[in-house]
Design goal:
The chain has 144 residues and is of the alpha+beta class. The protein has five helices and four strands.
Amino acid sequence: MTNFVYRAKFEPGERSGIVVTFPDVPEAITQGDDMADARAMAEEALGLALLTYPRRNLPLPQSQARTRGLIPVMVSAPVAAKLAVLEAFRASGMSRMDLARIMGKDEKAIRRILDPMHGTRIDTLEKTLNAMGHRLVIGVEKAA
């Protein structure tokens, strides 16, 4: 099962606030006024940074950082579902037309689903994953 959790470094900013960086996703840099704000900003920055990888035809970076003191951050559920669709499509070797045929949709609809920056309903992303032989699994855990 794939999850989109990356470890982040939270450290005091030069003047104020908390700066957040991700060793495995160097494009994701943000800051917050306090720890709660920094966590929220980190989730958003991570999601936006990861969505640029498919757009640049790059594979998602592997989550490898295990350094002591790093804090795990996961992307929001809609971003995770979108990333899962994009990764499954990339690995499938299908064309957009192939996916459109399987799903009974026109190619324009598939183009929107596969656009990393287009907001797609989570039920549509789930159906798309199912069409490619994958299943969307959602978990719940207590927030830190």
